[in-house]
Amino acid sequence: xxxxxxxxxxxxxxxxxxxxxxxxxxxxxxxxxxxxxxxxxxxxxxxxxxxxxxxxxxxxxxxxxxxxxxxxxxxxxxxxxxxxxxxxxxxxxxxxxxxxxxxxxxxxxxxxxxxxxxxxxxxxxxxxxxxxxxxxxxxxxxxxxxxxxxxxxxxxxxxxxxxxxxxxxxxxxxxxxxxxxxxxxxxxxxxxxxxxxxxxxxxxxxxxxxxxxxxxxxxxxxxxxxxxxxxxxxxxxxxxxxxxxxxxxxxxxxxxxxxxxxxxxxxxxxxxxxxxxxxxxxxxxxxxxxxxxxxxxxxxxxxxxxxxxxxxxxxxxxxxxxxxxxxxxxxxxxxxxxxxxxxxx
Amino acid sequence: xxxxxxxxxxxxxxxxxxxxxxxxxxxxxxxxxxxxxxxxxxxxxxxxxxxxxxxxxxxxxxxxxxxxxxxxxxxxxxxxxxxxxxxxxxxxxxxxxxxxxxxxxxxxxxxxxxxxxxxxxxxxxxxxxxxxxxxxxxxxxxxxxxxxxxxxxxxxxxxxxxxxxxxxxxxxxxxxxxxxxxxxxxxxxxxxxxxxxxxxxxxxxxxxxxxxxxxxxxxxxxxxxxxxxxxxxxxxxxxxxxxxxxxxxxxxxxxxxxxxxxxxxxxxxxxxxxxxxxxxxxxxxxxxxxxxxxxxxxxxxxxxxxxxxxxxxxxxxxxxxxxxxxxxxxxxxxxxxxxxxxxxx
Amino acid sequence: xxxxxxxxxxxxxxxxxxxxxxxxxxxxxxxxxxxxxxxxxxxxxxxxxxxxxxxxxxxxxxxxxxxxxxxxxxxxxxxxxxxxxxxxxxxxxxxxxxxxxxxxxxxxxxxxxxxxxxxxxxxxxxxxxxxxxxxxxxxxxxxxxxxxxxxxxxxxxxxxxxxxxxxxxxxxxxxxxxxxxxxxxxxxxxxxxxxxxxxxxxxxxxxxxxxxxxxxxxxxxxxxxxxxxxxxxxxxxxxxxxxxxxxxxxxxxxxxxxxxxxxxxxxxxxxxxxxxxxxxxxxxxxxxxxxxxxxxxxxxxxxxxxxxxxxxxxxxxxxxxxxxxxxxxxxxxxxxxxxxxxxxx
Amino acid sequence: xxxxxxxxxxxxxxxxxxxxxxxxxxxxxxxxxxxxxxxxxxxxxxxxxxxxxxxxxxxxxxxxxxxxxxxxxxxxxxxxxxxxxxxxxxxxxxxxxxxxxxxxxxxxxxxxxxxxxxxxxxxxxxxxxxxxxxxxxxxxxxxxxxxxxxxxxxxxxxxxxxxxxxxxxxxxxxxxxxxxxxxxxxxxxxxxxxxxxxxxxxxxxxxxxxxxxxxxxxxxxxxxxxxxxxxxxxxxxxxxxxxxxxxxxxxxxxxxxxxxxxxxxxxxxxxxxxxxxxxxxxxxxxxxxxxxxxxxxxxxxxxxxxxxxxxxxxxxxxxxxxxxxxxxxxxxxxxxxxxxxxxxx
Lengths: 345, 345, 345, 345
Description:
Low-confidence stretches of chain A: none
Largest sheet of chain A: 7 strands, parallel
Distance between the termini of chain A: 34 Å
Number of domains of chain A: 2
Radius of gyration of chain A: 20 Å
Shape of chain A: globular
Order of helices and strands of chain A: EHEHEHEHEHEHEHEHEHEEHEEEH
CATH architecture of the largest domain in chain A: 2-Layer Sandwich
CATH topology of the largest domain in chain A: Dihydrodipicolinate Reductase, domain 2
Strand content of chain A: 15-25%
CATH class of the largest domain in chain A: Alpha Beta
Strand order of the largest sheet of chain A: 3-2-1-4-5-7-6
Mean pLDDT of chain A: 97
Oligomer: homotetramer
Largest interface: A-B, 49 and 49 residues
């Protein structure tokens, strides 16, 4: 059994890690930390888990954590993570970090969109944790920068096109719709029930910090700069993210060509499901599961490709993907502990 | 008092017409028809209106309807409307039709996307009922083709740009998110509670029949063909539509230029509210009201304009706009009966 | 025109007052206060009201407020209200207070369930603002204790029975289900979107502070002590309250007797709609409106009466009722400014 | 591996059975039937299960089904089930029926509330499938009448009191609030999104067919007739049921006595969680899980007990409980395949 710690277990991503790990047949959750709830039983914070999770939250101490666990998931705010991760690595732990702190190769990009980086020496060795495109690096790495939810939902449908000359790489527009759990458990008027329910809004239009993450990863795949116009929206669901992507096609491209490219690219990838033309993805189909479903359609009149992807933002968009990374690092089948059947409704 | 009939009063658009007209100070609702509920009191179908609406539904008879009413709103399915409208006009009624049957000038376009047209002789005289761009024609016309909800939400933000050479008219993408009431009151699995709640999906991607309506109107404004890539999505709210529009900018365009253009174009239009840069529209702000709120942002990195509009699909997207058209036809102030304050939540 | 001030205008009840008063034909909203948002335009806090409400929030100063307004609505937290109301009354304003501070005749009851009372001398003269049972007192009073939402929804269906010997007054159970806006705009985990959406919970079981309010009013009507068992529940809607009431019947009571009692008691009351047997109320039918709909059924097998009422907790449960009180105090028809047609959906 | 068939697999209860059985380590789902979708892959009806469930729906034929499977779950409408179950039993299958057809011992009760019974000879041998109170009979039986959702949520909190003389058995009131999935997948206006969302309503007040089921089971436990007043309500969530129960206490009963009774009664029952006084259950805590959480509070002023229970109506209220029954019949640990950790949100 692999021994696991979750640092920052009481936010939504942390709690979702706890949920998934509780059912993982090869992992044993031995330690969870929380600054806010130190000393309290986890099941008091999340009564859903009464009788399932018996751990108490403790404060985060690097020695204690790395002494107890082989793998550490850090689900901390940006900037806080980079203060903890180096110490964990030095003490021999393998770390999967869910913040943005280790997602970028270029610390200048991070510093432009986030803040100053205090552990930039680690960026080189960190692997970007999107297993479908980065399996080998993840396997060899001790530190994973687990992707953002929006980048996951955008990069997966776009990746197969980066080398194919089928779409104009300067024309990509990403329009995402996210459930509210992506905003986390911290209180804000923007996540207050009556301000969200029966509402729809865009936010951080062309200014969201997930934009450079999409751009860096896609540019690396393409071997050239790929600029992204990105608009996130908030919709009144708890979980779920739907991303609609527009790109101009280069010449005459058929539905079959697109379908075959997507299907072959993800042939052996258990968590990506390519929908046959005519089917459209729905976030309901992936709720609570680690799937990314991808559909598409060509707008023949404008010669434009429209890709549509759905994920559960807390699973494939965060904690499920983190466990998938752990499986790969530990030499386990990717799907271990992640194969629960999605709900019918 | 203007005497009013609503033909097809028990669908959502019809019932919303009844609601609005009940509070209209210059109009008196004298007759409502329903095939399905003929003989029943309206308040039995919509108990919300008990004590407010005392009319019974009767079957639609052209003589009876035109004999009783000066203005007739027809809220019928496409194709059914064109069977009723000519008779009403012949008998002297003014007609505002909420179906697609009288929205197009070119019957070939209608026939390509809908079905054969049996009253195409009327298309020439019918006015497209978007008052902010078509006021004079509406004023003079006896037949209004009331716009679709998606076209209303897309044309209003785009119209000011059609003659300005600020955006590339071949690059327009319209990504819309709609509440479920747009699907009407007819039962379908697609509007069954558990299949919608906590879900998000695209539908009729690049194939929705509102596409040619947007194209015809915008092309007329531009004096050239304007192709639109259009993707509608369904989100789990009852009312509300948010439309995000992308267009490549021509050269260097500032936020001020865009703001000034929008603000001056809609200077005297009481139902269009232009948001200052930095503000984003939310469907909650227009729920139950006849407003269209428009915000925007320039993606400097890609030199692309992003417009965001919100409407209540049943009000500015259907019945409120229909009453606005009636006001104009009747020589009343546009806002008569339509100035209710939006709800705070 | 009556000049109106709203003190505490930026909470949900305050903002709903602003909404309703904006459409009131005999009232002019001249002044609004907010501690938190002093100096800001109201439409910046509630962008829905852009172009409709042009006032800025100012800090609450008793002289300024009473100098500007004939009627003052105080929508402040309990305890805060009692610090402001005496000064307003002394300066000649009529006050409708939406807190609990002036709802009780017996300050000992208030002090047991709330806190110490610093203006208890005013309790005698204050009128409990439930117009359907207290019209004359409201008419004559300068200070109204506007009822709580739960008490409104429970007292209206029960009041007709208090003197009739049809139900056992010791057997009354009130089971209420409330939308989230009742919890107000202050941030709390209990109103955080993801903690509420798709959830259902009871709270303050047999311990809610609205219990003694129901008991005092019903006991006064009955001329004896009427104990109430009360359980509130939270359901994931923004607006709406449904209350189910159980009481043992005394002897053989028919549906006709119950219906006739309810119908005759509320014969001339424009905001209470008694549903014929077989119909059940739905909060959707009163959303945004000042109605209280009441249905009922007799459980013949247990000889028990079941009453079901619905209100919009922000309208008849708070701000609509407050305006109804103002109308009565000002000698206007009760329904002035409150007759908007409910929405079909 | 136990071979399993689900007859009527495409309704919500059937699909939830498929979901749960797919993850069951000792069971293999070999056959599913659907009248409506015969010939279609299950994953086409429920795209969520693409790649997880590879079965096609076939029509229900008693020989084929009983030839293929050791255990058959019948998830059919009332009356339809009784036409299929006898044939399955004759051919040696063990049957867990999710309809009401085999829940009653007394066919006269069934016939009074449902319709004529054509397989009443089987009622004697059928076991009522509420494992927490009927374990031994379930273990020995070949036919299980799987409980209704409302009865499950009401009987579990009440059962411990039936023999204890702590509550007045003539005073029990059950007030339930259910999510919409309980209404099934069949289209109806009552489950149409816009008619449910943002609404709350009671239905079948004192007339719901689950009433006699509660009464028969509780009466059997008590050894005397226990009448129940029952009101179901519909709330706008997909899954979840909360039941609030009121009963007069006999004499002086403390919180400790009630807690100890509940805790000891369910000491070894893995799916019942008794909440310590001061905690209240929330349907969010059991979403997707087989738990029934029970909280309570004594209203000292009225000397009345208030019990609150929550279940997921599709899991403990239907399909999870059915699998729990199968586990018991097959000699497996009760929790096999049912121990998934609930979601944090």
